[in-house]
Amino acid sequence: MRIPIPVVIGVSLLAVVTCWWLRTKDMDFLTPTGVVSPLPEFMTDPTEAPGATGPVREAELPKPETSSPAPNKPDLDLGDLESSPGLAEYSEHAPKGAGYLVSLATELELQGHWARSLLAWERVLDSCRPSPPERKTAEDAIARIRPTLTYWNIDPAGDIPLLLQISDAPRSSENLKQAAREAADFLRQDSDQTLLVEAQITSARRNTTDTAIKIYFSGSRKGEPQLRSMKPGNDEVEHHRLLILSNSYQLVRSELSDIDGIVPPQNSNHPGNPKLDFQRQITRLHWLRFAESLNRPPASEN
């Protein structure tokens, strides 16, 4: 059976119209372009009062952290880096305190001025009253830097002569003589060869081991020297050397305590190894002042 053409056309139009209506029934063709329709109620903020309007809040961005300004470095006077320094270099900065000299020595070391850095580290010990951490920092730096440098005095003619005197020694003790020579050589090296230290032994009249041995330093200065006594427990070289160096350290410290303008070294911190006391606590300026004191002319000759 054939469907009449009018029916086919009517059904086709009805299908097209129905599709168009279903697709466009919710569209707004009357509102002008560019006008924003209000959001549906379920998409609005329920805490806001109805109809309340206001500017849209901007997103809150994290505030950048403001770094605290770096502490100001003290104005460091490095000195005339083109000239050769003296052993007392940077002593004029002692009133500024050990902290200033630690900063100065550190800066000189960072710039590669090793000889000047060593001098500044030494001033922490012989020109200031450092705190224990400052003292340890200076001692460690001196122990680190000094072996890398050449001797301060490379001209033997410029050595200041000193005698390490040992009297009332047993006549038969060759080991004591050897220990005294080794101790004198060590003291010369510890002074960075600014001093010519020689051992001089005077034997006792009686060949006995009961008499206490006297030890002292002497130069050209007149008057009674400071003495110390020691009584060895055996005749071993190492034992004699330990006694000689331990007593030598106390003699140097005692002499420096009577000199104005320099801070004497502390009491022994290494009784079992006096070499460390010399290497960590006695500076080259200490040695210079010690030698100058022992070779000071009488007041009438000044």
- Kindly report the oligomeric state of this protein: single chain
Portion in beta strands: 5-15%
| Record field, number of beta strands | 4
Q: What is the spatial order of strands in the main beta sheet? A: 2-1-3-4
Low-confidence stretches: 67-71
Radius of gyration: 45 Å
Q: What structural class results from the helix and strand content?
A: alpha+beta
Helix content: 25-40%
Short description:
This protein has helices at 5-24, 98-110, 114-126, 132-145, 174-190, 237-257, 274-281, 284-294; strands at 160-169, 195-203, 213-218, 228-230.
Task: Note down, in words, how this protein is organized.
- It contains 8 helices and 4 strands.
- The protein has a 4-stranded mixed β-sheet with strand order 2-1-3-4.
- The chain has 302 residues and is an alpha+beta fold.
- Among the domains are: 91-148, no CATH class; 156-301.
- The chain is 39% helix and 9% strand.
- Helix 2 (98-110) packs antiparallel against helix 3, helix 5 (174-190) packs across helix 6 and helix 6 (237-257) runs parallel beside helix 7.
Descriptive tags:
39% helix; alpha+beta; 302 residues; 8 helices
